[in-house]
Amino acid sequence: MHFEGTGIKIKEVKTKSFLIQANRYTTILLAAVLLYAGINKITSPSALIENLTSLFKFLPENLIIIIASILPLIEIGIGTALIFSVYEERIKKYKKAISLSAAILLGLFLAYSVYGYAAGMNNDCGCCGDALKSDFGLSMIIRNLILFLMTSLNIVFNTNRPRFKRVLL
């Protein structure tokens, strides 16, 4: 496009914008975090079970064991789906739904960390099994908030159609 008499040309260029690249990398990072946490919870669930038992004393022990057994599978499932949503064409159309389920899961983790901090818990949360020590505190809340915001931004900026960028020449 050329505007006569102004000396300004506007050229449409098909590009992968910064937001699309950032969306891809944050999706991969979120998937890695979920896969890491899920696998470590499967290999060593004792910290999570102990924490859930002490934090939610009103829940029956059988329910806590069921939660501690299913949660890692959900994390691994969502993490795997996030990876496939980046690279597999047939799955890309479900990326927004997959990112939404990751946001819900990470929102629950954020609420869990705030609740544990407010309840005065000072032990390991069991978030990554025995592989990584993570105490309830402001650092845990900030970490979960950042992960939740990353997932929320993935939902907002998720798109499968090409972007066109207007460039002034």
How would you explain this protein's 3D organization?
The protein is mostly helical and 169 residues long. Strands 1-2-4 form a 3-stranded antiparallel β-sheet, with no helix packed on it. The longest helix is centred in the middle third of the chain and has 27 residues. About 7% of the residues have low confidence.
SSE topology sketch:
Layout: E1 2-3, E2 8-15, H1 18-43, H2 46-55, H3 61-87, H4 89-92, H5 95-118, E3 127-130, H6 138-157, E4 163-168
Antiparallel strand pairs: 1-2, 2-4
Quick tags:
169 residues, mainly alpha, three-stranded antiparallel sheet
Beta-sheet strand percentage? 5-15%
Mean pLDDT reading: 79
Structural class: mainly alpha
Main beta-sheet strand count, sense and barrel state: 3 strands, antiparallel
Overall morphology? globular
Number of helices: 6
Low-confidence stretches: 10-15, 160-164
Give helix and strand order, one letter per element, not per position: EEHHHHHEHE
- Kindly report the spatial arrangement of strands forming the biggest sheet: 1-2-4
